[in-house]
Amino acid sequence: MFQINDNYQKLPGSYLFSTIAKKVAAYTEANPDRKLIRLGIGDVTQPLAPAIIEAMHKAVDEMAAAETFRGYAPDLGYEFLRNAIAENDYKARGCDIGADEIFVSDGAKSDSANIQEIFAQDNRIAVCDPVYPVYVDSNVMAGRTGTYNPDTQMWSDVIYMPCTKENGFVPDFPKEAPDMIYLCLPNNPTGTTVTKAQLQAWVDYANKVGAVIIYDGAYEAYISESDVAHTIYECEGARTCAIELKSFSKNAGFTGVRLGYAVVPKELKCGEVSLHGMWARRHGTKFNGAPYIIQRAGEAVYSDAGKAQLKDQVAYYMKNATAIKEGLQAAGYEVFGGVNAPYIWLKTPGHMTSWEFFDYLLAQANVVGTPGSGFGPSGEGYFRLTAFGSYENTLAALERIKSL
Ligand SMILES: Cc1ncc(COP(=O)(O)O)c(C=O)c1O
Q: What residues of the chain score a pLDDT lower than 70?
């Protein structure tokens, strides 16, 4: 008789967003006349930029002729895309990352879930709390997290680094040295980030204790402050301790198109073993490449027209972020984030729990947000709103919240 991977049985409850979807569906069924405004899930709403659409059309036409048709993509991704990434995301920022250190993928969710595979089973992971749930859940599935305590909502073998208003949402170095440190900056869900100097301290710490940093830069395009690093490789010593994951979802609206990449520097080694070689082996065996059409779309992100159009798109969402932040502050809420990220993290009023505030907002304002406790125990008492809606809906939602 076959046996299952028992680790899956350890995963608690349903995924946060399924719980939200169920609650929203129940409310809609009971109140069919109410128009809900959704500022919950972090999905974009603006259409793909014209430069991207144009590149995709051209690539589709290429697929229609034998001379220009493409089959399987090269293992690491097409050179035209990896060169554009190396040039624009790294060299232009003074960072020494070669095109052959970039692995094109179908997005940062799969990369952030898969990367743990190349590390030992008994490695200790450290995560910020609250956190993007994929980092912990993928390690649960791999059997690396010990046992779950439903009372504390914590895993026995995970090191949690609380990020709350008390520490300015900047994690302290853990008491016990971790082997793998997940950092997502600018952060989902808190919408906050750290300065380049604070990130440098993390790089120094990782190099000192011999840990690897898995650095998720999915929201890099939203950075507006000058003392914030756009990539971890702006920090000295990051080439020996950090893997960076990037996504085209939030900077270019590729949530449904699917494209991302991982950077594994060649100096990143465990003894004599290069992680670059391991990830190349893993990628070659388990992934058959992002589609040619989509990689051409990704290339267009770095064209002059693409850059200008996407700058406007990011500015559109950040206008929403500013409106939410300032509107809520004026209404007396304590609000964080929204300056270098499209997320607003607010303290729930009147000591409501995160889920109590979710229910209250849904029923009284018909606005859907995300309970902070769904991202980890330190998210209790907080609530996330996203700036990814339309400007009109964002303003309408704010009016409803203000009038509560
Ligand atoms: C922190 C973080 N990483 C990764 C992702 C997923 O990125 P992708 O769409 O490239 O899989 C998200 C999506 O919300 C995210 O918030």
A: 14
The class (CATH top level) of 53-303 is alpha beta
Q: Which residues contact 32 (CB under 8 A, 6 or more apart)?
A: none
Mutating to test ligand 1, I would choose from 103, 105, 109, 128 the residue with most ligand atoms within 8 A of its C-beta, which is 109
CA distance 25 to 393: 20
User: What CA–CA distance (Å, rounded) separates 63 from 51?
Assistant: 19
| pLDDT tens for each residue of 22-36 | 999 999 999 999 999
CB of 260 closer than 6 A to ligand 1? yes
Number of residues written out for the chain: 404
AA identity, residue 38: R
Whole-number pLDDT of residue 121: 96
* Of 78, 79, 99, 80, nearest in space to 89 by CA: 99
Quote the radius of gyration of the chain (alpha carbons, Å): 21
pTM for the full predicted model: 0.97
| Pocket flag, ligand 1, residue 313 (CB < 6 Å) | no
How far out from the chain centre does Cα 325 lie? 21
Label residue 271 exposed, middle or buried (CB < 10 Å: 0-12, 13-18, 19+): exposed
* Extents of the domains making up the chain: 15-47+305-402, 53-303
Q: d(Cα 25, Cα 12) in Å, to the nearest integer?
A: 22
What letter does residue 29 receive in the DSSP assignment?
H
Per CATH, the architecture of 15-47+305-402 is what? Alpha-Beta Complex (3.90)
**Ligand 1 atom 16: residue of nearest CA:** 188
* Candidate from 111, 132, 219, 254 with most ligand 1 atoms within 8 A of CB, to mutate: 132
Residue for token pair 């109140």: 31
Plot region of 271 (φ>0 → left; ψ -120 to 50 → alpha; else → beta): left
d(C-alpha 233, C-alpha 86), whole Å:
12
Helices (H), 12-87: 16-30, 50-62, 79-85
Which residues 6+ apart lie within 8 Å of 148 measured at CB? 10, 12, 140, 154, 155, 156
- Quick one: pLDDT at residue 331? 95
Q: Is the CB of 138 under 6 A from ligand 1?
A: no
